[in-house]
Design goal:
The complex is a heterodimer of chains A (484) and B (437). Chain A is an all-alpha fold and 484 residues long. Chain A is built from 25 helices and 4 strands. In chain B, α4 crosses α10. Chain B is globular. The chains are: A mainly alpha (484), B alpha/beta (437). Chains A and B meet through α12, α21, α23, α24 and α25 of A and α5, β7, α7 and α8 of B.
């Protein structure tokens, strides 16, 4: 290391120590502040957690104003994240393959395309992880993640990274607007059309894949439609296809079944757009969408839960997601202890939260750069997420990721411990040196913006407080941090 | 088929930590000598073929080991066990269907998918039984509800606990009684009070050196401040520590007794003795299971899985590739077990959330369907024959097969005969067992 760099690091560290000493004085005097607790909770659920200074700032604004500021971020620029350039995509991903009559050339082309796509997929993961870490409009990235899990589409089958990128931008752009508009766009999205085979759905013997999941997983939930509705919807989506080279939507009229259909009690010569309109405006869809958002932002509920009905009635007026989010964040249930104890962080939330709290990027380097560019291969955070079973752009199936208990087993416990220690080992924890050993667990808790450690965790952390890396690695696997 | 009386629940191993250690002590004396043999002995097919039903080992009550192979996505039963002599089959599947001369013929006008060559050899060796038409009333064509119905064995009302999770709840707290290979634990092995173990390798290496175990024990101790999800987080950490200790003891003893030049088991990727076996493919997962069985793990149920069966489009090539993978993984596993005492008590079964529609669609695939056949493999299996009737291709329910064998009969059979427990601890209602073990 150059002398100049060393000197600047020393200066930084001296300044840091001054701040820490001052902050420690505050910390010792601090008692749990319910207002700060609510705000920190809001930042965890409407984003990926906040640093103490962000909570400080929000406290001066108040809870309702902080909600409005988060909602305002659903549209407009995101300066910090927009500075991170998306990766370039090679044309080979969508170029036509040599014909089947030349199997050798075809195999070679497929191999080359897959190798290129794998690199693009890794770059895409790095790009989005860095966006989530850097974002100045965290609710927007959070909703992008939520919609990704909802309209779950996986690279493993789609195989075209630029299509996955496009879908991700779709969620980012339309994720706070009308649910019908969002669903209409998803129905014509190339990644989705490839994922659920809409592109090859032909009149006569239709492919039911998209029609069924549209109702079961995206809009209504099981029990709110019949098999005859699946069959009618599948017919309505026949002939919907995409231009392979561009991913553009195209209707192939000769493959389309334009005949009369009866769908959810309505009759007409419906096409796919009609199906999406009808299905998103069903009362069952309102309950389904409200329950889904509440379950991912507050705590799991069924569409039949009493809490859902009034929210669904309000949402049903215009299907506006921003209004629904406002209602959820301002609902007394949202800041209840049931909500604060009600969710296990998904692995993506867990690693992005850590990276934000400690100022790292997807490559576990100090954040602030643009993240993209020279770095190739899989980022360390992507590697961690693969072991934790939540790879961005690659959900396990069309149902997305399950919640809570799904993330709690011996394998994920081990993976969190490994990841926590690996991340901790990459941190500059010299600032902990000036913190008295007995204060260190509290200092880490403060840094993570949690309400505090319970007595069992505190006792355990006190045992290892002399070893900063172990302390941090263990602390982030404690129930107080693993829960959202 | 006449109902068999269920075997009464024994007070088997794994009920608590003490009995598990007792079991291990026994295994250390008997199992390890055999374990070396497992790694070295690959049964030759001629031996398999020459084995007769009279030499079939019988399961000792309460000593069986069940391996559940979950096929995610809805395996196409009609292209797995193919009714090739029924003209309705090729009428429904002009592009996807296999011609009579392509299938591997069994009996009753049925044949195996052309790529299931090793399964055919197991059938001929009477170690593969096929249960036909497995399903349940009012079938659900959803992947998720369908898999939940299978894993909770509850078609009528949604349950939180898995069918084998309820067995775990009823028989103690040792997480090693059931192991799933993979990063997540299926509902199948999740109970209300207990859960099985999820691991990706036969050993667990805690990071952070020797200081980590006591630190983790302290962090994941039960506490008055822990309830609900917070208690669950701590419980899986505590289970991890428990599993780490036991597996370390087992695998150390096992590996010490296994020559370093041992032939690698199929699918494990080989490597030096003691190298970590990390499982991703089905063969890799079954390699981990074989290693744990050889080492004498006190585990009564294993779960492994394979995805990719949801072939709504361009099914033929994909499904053929999956059949090859399944065939190689299962036969490789049976080979790896061959010759060991523990191996002779292993029963493997496949299942999927549903079969697929009889008629193909114009995307070259099939849509979600209903009943399907499943495979039961193992030395104690009365193989080379079918159980349950073949569903009719003429009498369909909205294009789908009507089930002939309630899937809960399969669970009742495995619980009673393999796990050695009264099926009532896990099943709501009484279901006649199948006479295949």
């Amino acid at each position: 290391m150059q002398a100049k760099e060393l000197a600047s690091k020393r200066d930084f560290s001296r300044h840091h120590r001054f701040l820490i000493t001052r902050w420690l004085t505050d910390l010792v005097a601090a008692t749990p502040d319910p207002r700060r607790s609510d705000l920190a909770h809001l930042f965890r659920r409407a984003g990926f957690g906040a640093r103490p200074d962000e909570v400080d700032h929000a406290a001066t604004q108040g809870y309702p104003a902080t909600v409005e500021s988060l909602l305002a971020g659903l549209t407009g620029p995101d300066p910090a994240a927009d500075a991170i350039a998306p990766p370039p995509f090679a044309a080979s991903g969508v170029a036509p393959l040599p014909p089947a009559t030349d199997p050798a050339a075809r195999q070679t082309a497929i191999k080359a395309r897959n190798a290129e796509a794998a690199g693009e997929y890794q770059a895409l993961q790095r790009w989005w992880l860095n966006r989530m870490i850097a974002t100045s409009t965290p609710l927007r990235e959070k909703m992008t993640l939520l919609w990704h899990g909802h309209f779950a589409t996986a690279f493993q089958k789609v195989r075209v990274a630029s299509f996955m990128f496009r879908q991700n931008e779709l969620f980012r752009t339309l994720g706070g607007g009308s649910f019908e508009t969002l669903t209409q766009a998803v129905a014509k999205d190339p990644a989705m059309m490839r994922w659920l085979d809409t592109e090859s759905n032909v009149a006569g013997h239709p492919n039911e894949n998209f029609a069924r999941e549209l109702m079961e997983l995206f809009t209504l939930g099981i029990g709110n439609y019949a098999e005859t509705d699946v069959q009618a919807a599948a017919r309505a989506f026949t002939g919907w296809s995409l231009v392979p080279a561009t991913g553009a939507f195209v209707l192939r009229p000769r493959r389309h079944d334009s005949g009369p259909k009866t769908f959810l009690g309505q009759s007409g010569n419906f096409d796919g757009t009609d199906i999406v309109r009808i299905v998103t405006h069903q009362p069952a869809s309102a309950r389904f969408v409200v329950a889904k958002l509440w379950s991912h932002l507050a705590y799991p509920v069924a569409p039949t839960d009493a809490l859902v009905a009034p929210l669904a009635a309000a949402y049903a007026r215009d299907l506006d997601i921003t209004s629904l989010l406002r209602t959820i964040f301002l609902h007394p249930g949202f800041t209840s202890s049931a909500a604060k104890q009600g969710l296990v962080k998904q692995p993506i939330e867990w690693v992005v939260g850590l990276a934000r709290a400690f100022g790292l990027d997807a490559d576990l380097k100090p954040s602030g750069g643009t993240g993209a560019g020279a770095v190739a291969g899989r980022s360390p955070l992507s590697g961690i997420l693969a072991v934790l079973a939540q790879e961005p752009f690659n959900p396990p199936n069309v149902g997305g990721w399950a919640q809570n208990g799904y993330w709690l087993n011996t394998a994920t416990s081990l993976a969190r411990l490994q990841a926590g220690l690996a991340v901790a080992a990459r941190l500059d924890l010299s600032w902990l040196d000036v913190v008295p050993v007995g204060q260190r667990p509290a200092a880490i808790g403060q840094r993570l913006s949690i309400d505090g450690w319970g007595q069992t965790t505190l006792a355990a952390l006190n045992h290892v407080a002399g070893h900063p890396v172990v302390l941090v690695g263990l602390a982030v696997t404690a129930p107080e941090y693993v829960l959202n | 088929m006449p109902p068999d009386s269920p075997t009464p629940a024994p007070s088997g191993p794994g009920g608590n930590g003490v009995s598990r250690r007792r079991f291990l002590a026994g295994a250390a004396g008997v199992g390890v000598a055999g374990a070396g043999a497992v790694a070295l002995t690959h049964r030759r097919w001629e031996n398999v073929l020459s084995s007769s039903s009279s030499s079939r080992p019988t399961l000792t009550s309460g000593k069986g080991i069940l391996v559940m192979v979950t096929l995610y996505g809805g395996n196409d039963g009609l292209n797995t066990v193919i009714p090739y002599q029924d003209s309705a089959y090729l009428q429904g599947r002009p592009n996807l269907g296999y011609q009579p001369n392509q299938v591997l013929p069994l009996t009753d006008g049925l044949g195996l998918h052309p790529n299931l060559k090793a399964m055919k050899a197991l059938w001929d060796a009477k170690e593969l039984a096929i249960i036909r038409g497995v399903g349940y009333p009012n079938p659900v064509l959803s992947h998720f509800r369908g898999m939940d119905i299978w894993q909770t064995a509850s078609p009528d009302e949604p349950l939180v606990t898995g069918v084998l999770g309820r067995w775990l709840d009823a028989t103690g707290s040792d997480p090693l009684r059931a192991i799933s290979i993979g990063s997540t634990l299926p509902r199948l092995l999740t109970g209300e009070r207990s859960a099985g173990t999820a691991i990706v390798a036969p050993t667990v290496t805690l990071p952070g050196g020797t200081a980590m175990a006591p630190a983790l024990a302290s962090l994941d101790a039960p506490g008055p401040d822990r309830h609900g999800l917070s208690a669950l987080v701590a419980a899986s950490g505590a289970d991890l520590l428990n599993v780490q200790h036991t597996l370390a003891d087992l695998m150390n003893a096992h590996r010490a007794a296994t020559p370093a030049t041992a032939t690698p088991r199929p699918g494990t990727g080989g490597g030096a003795a003691g190298a970590r076996t990390v499982a991703t493919t089905l063969a890799g997962q079954l390699g981990v299971v074989a290693e744990l069985i050889a080492a004498g793990s006190p585990t009564r149920v294993y779960q492994v899985s394979m995805g990719g069966f949801d072939n709504h489009a361009q099914e033929k090539d994909t499904h053929a590739r999956l059949m090859t993978e399944l065939d190689g993984a299962v036969s490789g596993f049976m080979t790896a077990l061959g010759g060991s005492a523990a191996g002779s008590s292993v029963v493997l079964m496949t299942y999927s959330e549903f079969g697929r529609r009889v008629a193909e669609n114009l995307s070259g695939g099939t849509d979600h369907g209903t009943a399907a056949p499943l495979f039961v493999v193992g030395a104690p299996v009365k193989g080379g024959q079918f159980y349950g009737d073949e569903p009719s291709l003429a009498n369909l329910d909205d294009g789908n097969l009507r089930f002939t064998t309630d899937f809960r009969r399969v669970f009742a059979t495995m619980l009673a005969k393999v796990v050695g427990v009264d099926p009532k601890v896990a099943l709501n209602g009484s279901f006649p067992t199948l006479n295949l073990l």
